[in-house]
Structures are given as C-alpha cells and as structure tokens.
Amino acid sequence: MPSEVHRRAFLQLLALAGAGSVALPGLAEAGTGFPLVSRGKAATIVVSPGDLPGVRRVAGDLAADVERVTGVRPAVSGVAPVHGPVVLVGTLGHSPLVDSLVSAGKLDVTGVAGKWETSLSQVVDGRLVLTGSDQRGVIYGVYEVSRRIGVSPWYWWADVPPARASELHLPGERFSLGTPHVKYRGFFINDENPALGTWAPAYFGPGLAPGFPNGFNHEFFAKVFETMLRLRANYLWPAVWGRAFAEDDPLNHATAKEYGVVMGTSHEAPMMRGIEEWNRHAVPAVRDAAGTITTPGHDPYGGTGEWSFRRNGEAIKAYWTDGIRRMAREDFEGVVTLGMRGNGDVSLPDGDGIELMREIIATERDILARELSTDVPQVWTLYKEVQRYWAQGLRPPDDVIVVFTDDNWGNIRKHPDLSLPRHPGGYGLYYHFDYVGGGRNYKWVDTALIANTWEQLHQAVSYGNDRLWVANVGDLKGNELPLQFFLDYAWDPSALPVERLSTWERQFAATNFGPALASDIAGVLHDYGRLQSRRKPELLNRRITLQPDGTIVYDDQATPFSLVNYRELDRVTDEWQALAARSARISARLPAAYRDAFYELVAYEVTASANLYALRRAEFTNLLYAAQGRASANGLAAVTEARFADDLALAEKYNTGIAGGKWKGFQTQPHIDYGDVARYGPNAPWQQPELNNVALPDIIFPAVRRISLPAAATLGVAVDGSSEAWPGAAGRPVLPEFSPYQSAPAQYIDVFNRGRTPFRCRVSVAGAPWVLVEPRGGRVEEELRMTVRIDWSRAPKGVTTVPITVSGAGESVVVDAVVAHRPVPSSWRRGFVEAGGYVSMEASHCSANVSAGPVSWRLIPDLGRTGAGMTPFPVTAASRTAGDGPRLEYRMTLFTAGPVTVWAYLSPRSNVLPGDGLRYAVSLDDAAPQVVNITKATGADDMTMNRQWERTTSDNVNLTSTRHVVAAPGPHVLKVWMVDPAVVVQKLVVDTGGLRPSYLGPPESLRWPG
Predict the structure, then answer these.
(1) What does pLDDT average to over the chain?
(2) 3-class DSSP state for residue 206?
(3) Tell me: the pLDDT tens digits for 421-474?
C-alpha cells in the first residue's frame, strides 16, 4: 500500500494543480533545495555500470528531460565527480554508491527495502539520491522528477511541450511514491487496424518477420515502454491484429527486458505466445459434419493445423512448450496466460466442458514445471464464456491470478464472492476503453466517463481485486486520459476518492497545458466525457426498440434521439456545438507551442464528435423532411455533405497538419458507415466498414435524400411531438399538452412549402387571445417555425382544447392545442410536479436520503446520462430485504389518479453478486415495496451477449418499470429502496399517461421547494 507520506504528498500536489497556483508542483524556490540546474550548469547524473539495465537506461532519459526543460544536458557518468552537485540513481542491492550510504546509516530505507516497486528520493550529503526497492521503483522515482520539472508522460505520444525554465531546484526532504496498490498494472494494445496499424509501420519501419511488414518493431515498442513507465505501468499485452510480438522483431523481448517491463499475452493467447504465431504457420484441416478430415491441414509440429486441444493436442502442447522455452532462453520478466479460447477470440471449438479446461490448465502447468518453473506469475482470465468455468466451480492452482473482466462496455461482470475463502493467488481485472464485437465496435475516439470508471474500479478494490489490472486501450493514442486515470487509481485508490475527480482532471490539464487554462481545459474534458457517455458515436445511426412481444429491433438508418419529442436531438446536438465552441476559444488562447498537443488530446475528439452530431442531425432531419415533402430537405442534404467534408478535413489536419505530419495515416478509423450491409456484408451491424479485413473509408450512411419539388406552392404543416405532416396525415394534428408547470421546450408548429414558389401564411386563434403564436404568419420560402405559448394569467382553469388554424397557398390545417390549467392548493406545492402526463426526476434530486445503519445511498457526480447517479455505499454492503434498507424519497404532486408506471433509468450493471440478479425496490406512499430483479427484467446476459445485453450496453441504461396505483390527485412520495449493492439509479420517470418516446427521457420536471 502507498505510504502515508506518499498519500499526503500526492494529495498536496493534486491540490496545487487544482488551484492552478504553480506551474511545476514539487519544485523548490530558486536558491533553495537541490540545484538540478543552476546558473547554466546541470548536476551530474551518476549510475553504477553494474546496476540493472532499466535503471542505467532511465538515467539517460532524466538527462534528456532536463535538457528539454532547460536546454542544458546533464552528464551521465558511472563515477561521481569530485566537485559539483550529483544526482545518484541506483537500485538497493545493485548500486554500490547507494548501498554505501545505507551501510553508513546516512540513508534510511525503512519501508522501502524489500517492497515492490517502491521509490525513495532524498538529499544526502548534498547529493540527490533516487533509489528504490527494485528496478522499477527506481525508474518510477526518476520519472517522478521528470514530471515535477515539467515533462509530461505524453511528451512524445501527444507532443506535449515541456515546461521551460532556466533554473531547476528540487526539495531535499525524504519522499516516496509508496508501494502500488495493484501489483501488475498495464494495458492491451488491441483492435489496432486501421489507425495504429497504418501509422506505426510507416513511422518506425516495417516489422522484420518475412512476409509480415505490418508488424510492430522494437523501436515502436521502445516508445510504448517508455510511456508505460512514465505512467507507472509495468505490464503489457502487445498488439495482436495480424501481429506477433516475438516474431515481428527479434529484439522486442530484449527491449522489454532493457526497459524493465513485464510482458504478457492476452486472454486468448496462452503460454507466452500470441495467437498470430500459430496462424502464420498453420493451415487448419477441414472436417465434415462427422468430424472426418476432408482437406488435410498442417502446422510446424506435424499436426493438423487446427487450434484444438482435443483434435491437435500434441501439436498444441509442442507449440506451448516452445513459448515457455523461449521465455526461459531470453530471460525476460513475464506473466504467463493459462487456459485456452478459440482462434479469433471466440469460444473453444472443443466444447465448454469443465474437465476439458481442467486438463488444459494442468497440461500448461506441467510444461511450466518442466521448462521453467511454476513460480513464474500466471493468470487465468475469465473473459466472456470462460467465466462459466469459474461459476461451475473450477479453480486454478492457488498461485494463479484469477482475472475478472468487464462486459467490454465498462461494467464489471462479477466480483469475488466475499462469503467464500479468498483465492490465494489473488484477483485481477480486465477492463475496456476500446472494443470490437457484438452490439457495435467503439474504437474511434475516447468515450470513457471518468465517474463510471471510478465507480467500477472502486468496486473492484473494495472486493479485494488488487493483483493485476489491464485495460484494453485500442491504439493507445486517443485513450490517454482514461488510461492515465486507470493507472493512477491502480497505483493508489486512497488518493482518488470521488470528491477529487475534478481535481484529477485539472491536474491532467495542468500537466499537459500549464496552469493558466487548466480549469477551462478540464471543464471541456469533463463535459466531453459526460456527453460522450450517453452513446458511443459509432451508434448514432442505430435506434433500438423493444416491441410489445419482447422482440428487440435494430434500425441502423435511424437516430436513437427523438427528432420530434422534447426537441431531444436538437438539444443534445446544441450541447455538443457549445462544447466545441468552448474548445475553439481555449485553443485560440493557448500559446502556439501547445496547440498540436491540444488538438491531439482535446480539440480533435471534441470538434469531430460535435461535427458528427451535427452531421447526424442534418442527415436524419433530411430523411424526415423528405418523407414529409418539405422543400428544406434538399438543403439539409447539402448540410450533411458539408459536415461529412468537415469530418474528413479534421482527420486530414490530424494526419498532416500537426506535429510536422508526424501522425500521417493515424486518423483513418471509419465511424460513420456502420450498418451498411449492402456495402460490406452481414457483419456491418457490428463490425467497422471493411472488406477482406481492410478498413473502408467512410461514406454517408444512411444516404441522404433529395426530392423533386413542383413549381407551385403547396402548404405543409407539422407539429411538435409528431413525425406526420398535414394535409395528408389522418386526423387533426394535436400539440403536446400545455401546462404552467411544464419544463419541456415550448411547443411549435412548422409551416413548410412542398413546392418551389414562396407563399404567405397566417394563423388564427378564435376566442382564445391567451394562446400566443409567434410569429403569427409570414412569407414561407421553405419553412417557418411558429412557437406556441400560453398567457397563464388569462387562461381559464381546467382543461381546454383550442383550435389553431394555419392557412396558406389556398389550404388550411387546424391544429389542436390542449391547455391544462389545473389549480394547485398551497399544501400540494412540494417536490416535483406533473406536467405533460409525466413526472421526470434526476435520481440525485431526492427529497430525502434515509440511511439504514452504516449503509446509505451516495451521489456519484455525472454518472448518469443526464445527471448524477445514486448507488448504495459501502459497495460491499450486504443485501437487504425490500423495505428494510436505505431509501431515497421523492415528493411529487400528481394531478392524475389511477394506474401509473414508474420507469427507473439504471446504469447497465452486470450481476456482479452471487445471486440470480441485481435488485432494487420501489414503493408509492405507504404501499409495500415492489422488488425488481434487473437482470431478469431486462433479460440481458453478458455471458451469451444476447440482444437484450446489446440493447442495455448500447443505450447505456437498464430501463425497468413497476406499476402503481395513485389513490387520488395531490402530494405523493415515491420511494426507491436498496435491495442489493452495485445498483446505480440515474433517473426516475412517472408516466401518468402522457410520456412520449425519447432516448434520454423527458427533461426534469419543475420542482417546488420542500
């Protein structure tokens, strides 16, 4: 665990960065402390020639970092100079100079020696000593100095310029980063085509395996390893899409050893061999339905070429044996993956029998014992169907780390059962910031919400998960912020309580852009994550609907946001445009040196996402308007095409317009043409646009429509809340109900032209001067929007239907306005008030939060799609009987008596507990609580990844309902009860009969005090 000294120091640095008071937190004033650089001269960096290779190498990085900041490069020597300041870099037990200070009693290494990856810095006899318990402990301490002098961990990968200073003085007091909470912390470079897979071989040169030029060589991985260590990571799963780490460059493993990085392989690649090492050299046999080989296959081990333990076991064993022999021969540090999955990251072709997996793991252990040692760290990852073995009781040997996983969408699937003995090997976590698979890929830009990541990682720590954490970061570049947060939290969860998330964001901004605009930049990044978490950008052309019979229907040519209800698509798109404008203003204020980094870390993802929303709004409005025959549809087709051109231009700027063209070819990830089955086949609903495993450039999908218009003017009318158009549609158009208590946007009438000749229109409201229409008429070339409001001081009490007549081009349409002006006694004026046939409440805006002993509901800011989330704390609390646990209360004023439906908008959490599903309960007034088993109610299964699961993860919500009876109009109290922990309530909507379909639910209702 990190020391208290470290924790206090780290919190102090966070506070300084959050306040924006210092540019380089942790530096001493000029003339005080240790003079790293003073009066144009740098201290000499001394490292023993016999020290560990990673320590010898990092001393050179420190010299380079000092030069980046000051222009003065320190000398690096194996011998201390007689005169002048010295930085002594060395590992305890490997540096004679450091060890001599310990032996002389001048350097106290209590709490450091014998620990894992623990650093220590202290000035001793005028020398700055940077030491540690082991190789990486020293490395992390050295890179901490680099951070303090103003070199960002992202100086290379995101082109962050170093701070500039002529003098560098470091405090001399004892300081330690402490011992990391999670032992192995790292990431998985994955799903790397086309972006990273295009850029890296072009920038660093091709891979060295004959016939496989797209491999990643050791020069590429050197940059990855350096960044890992600057982020205090230690563990890597290397890229696998057509790549084989060990074959693509014979120096790859040696480079990992030189840097001091722990190597691993992904959950699908056992025994330290990437699956591509098999695929490159094996051709699988083809069998008929009876299992008879019809076309022979081959592999280097004399087998059938099949990735099958049952049918090609001897070859598979020989292949695994070679992997462990190579590990022993090259003597690199690694964690060995056990188990087996099917080729291509799928389930085993041999079936899922528990005895088969037991035999596979036993075989792998025998190979380890024979060729290396079973003392080498090992891991078994319960990804997708592999978790079934654990659920059925299979346990690996005691020393093996068991890695639980999320559901690929940031929701942990299962926690260790705290009622059972802890597995001696400990637990790990595999988490995703990038994904390829069912539902839909998301791999274009960062879509992580820090609040969600925090809440899930907090759960993992609380349930004892602390041995190995790895995050799928896709291309690495583009996921800088969530990766750094993931690693910071893994290092010391206690330093990052939920109250400090905004401070962490400001620190991230200050580290990369300086303190002056750190708060503004952090605000943009925060709101970006909040908006992006509503839905992955790749899914902006998929509407998912649940039919009355339970069937889930996908429409990949529709927007999930409502075009007609609550002005939903307009409101969310406008939020994005406002965010992009904030980003542009910051960029204009930044010094020119920071603008490339700002584009890479902030501006591109913000601006391109905002542009995509603008494209989708124009595109889907075009399709609606074309169906209505509006003249304006054709203009919207042009707007869509203009936004598509902007999308291409933003990517081109990334590829060629920043950092001197350094990132050419990187920004090539398609993100618009998902679902285009006609163009690229049956995988289109989930897979990126590609043919023959090569990504296709985007096109606009669905295609916009242009319509032919008659010359003559023709009246058209559409109204708020409907996609129909009149004349032509059945019945009379009716506006959504008006209420003095409504929070929804003002109702409107669209008057539009179905022809090419302009006309004049007018509106008349007979006998109801308190119905206000603005404007009341005018010239209609393409369309004219009229806003309808009520003068409530003159409107009659009760419910009144007022006809509004719209005339023009020789035709008229009558629109009905239903005006509900219900009297409200003063005793009713408490809490939320019904309007428009519903009450909508953010979960955090409860009237009362009633605890039950030490357990209560806790607010997690911005965890919901439209606000905060509420979840029981502590997260390890025991389940409760409905009505016995903590509760949230919501006061409401209802005008409607009779049956109502309460919709609960919940985070799409998996069933992490031992039972058959996560549960909560709802009651109205004093009625008995109704228990909802969320897992059963939604039918979502993260094991089979069924359509119900795809729906909840894609929509990022579990939407469940209960039915209640309102005895009479008046004040009422809705209560939400904890039954199980890990439930997150985002929003509650009471449908009294007027709720209209939308993605996010209606805007929050008016709320009276009390």
Answers:
(1) 95
(2) coil
(3) 999 999 999 999 999 999 999 999 999 999 999 999 999 999 999 999 999 999
Closest C-alpha to 892, from 914, 920, 925: 925
778-803 pLDDT per residue, tens: 999 999 999 999 999 999 999 999 99
Q: What DSSP designation does 492 have?
A: -
The letter for the amino acid at 158 is: A
477: tokens are 């570049």
Q: How far apart are CA 343 and CA 297, in angstroms?
A: 15
Quickly count: other Cβ atoms within 10 Å of residue 832's Cβ: 27
CA-based end-to-end distance of the chain: 45
Largest CA distance in the chain: 103
Closest by alpha carbon to 987, among 1000, 1006, 999? 1000
Bridge partners (DSSP) listed for residue 334: 263
- How many helices (H) and strands (E) are present in the chain, helices listed first? 23, 43
CA 488/CA 130 separation, integer angstroms: 21
CB atoms near residue 96 (< 10 Å): 12
Instruction: Name the nearest CA neighbour of 806 among 773, 770, 769, 768.
Output: 773
- The residues, ordered by sequence, that sit 6+ positions from 838 with a Cβ below 8 Å of its Cβ are 989, 990, 991, 992, 994, 995, 1002, 1005
Measured N-to-C along each axis, helices 518-532 and 501-513 cross at an angle, to the nearest 10 degrees, of 120
The pLDDT value given to residue 454? 98
Summarised one tens digit per residue, pLDDT across range 519-544 is 999 999 999 999 999 999 999 999 99
Going from the C-alpha of 94 to that of each of 97, 134, 367, 790, 846, the distances in angstroms are 9, 9, 32, 82, 59
- With H, G, I as helix, E, B as strand and everything else as coil, classify residue 441: coil
Q: Are 1001 and 842 in contact (CB under 8 A)?
A: no
C-alpha to C-alpha distances, 686 to 343, 434, 776, nearest whole angstrom = 19, 14, 48
Q: 445, 478 in Cβ contact below 8 A?
A: yes
The packing angle between helices 135-149 and 218-230, to 10°, is: 80
Q: Which among 266, 641, 684 has a CA at the least distance from the CA of 441? A: 684
Question: Which is nearest to 144 in space by CA: 237, 9, 259?
Answer: 9
Strands 919-924 and 759-764: unpaired
pLDDT for res 20: 29
What are the respective helix, strand and coil percentages of the chain, to the nearest 5?
A: 30, 25, 45
Selection from 949, 864, 937 nearest residue 409 by Cα: 949
Contacts 24+ apart (CB under 8 A), 646-652: 646/611, 646/615, 647/608, 647/611, 647/612, 647/615, 647/672, 647/698, 650/604, 650/607, 650/608, 650/611, 651/608
Calculate helix-pair angle for 450-462, 501-513, nearest 10 degrees: 120
Helices (H), 178-231: 195-204, 218-230
| Residue 711: strand, helix, or coil | coil
Distance CA 887, CA 872 (A): 9
Segment 912-920 shows an average pLDDT of 95
Q: Would you call 363 helix, strand, or coil by DSSP?
A: helix
The token duo for 41 is 């001269």
3-state secondary structure of 994: coil
Residue 904 pLDDT exceeds 50: yes
Rounded-to-integer distance, Cα 747 and Cα 755, Å: 25
895 vs 223: CA distance, rounded Å: 64
CA distances (Å), origin 9, targets 5, 13, 177: 6, 6, 9
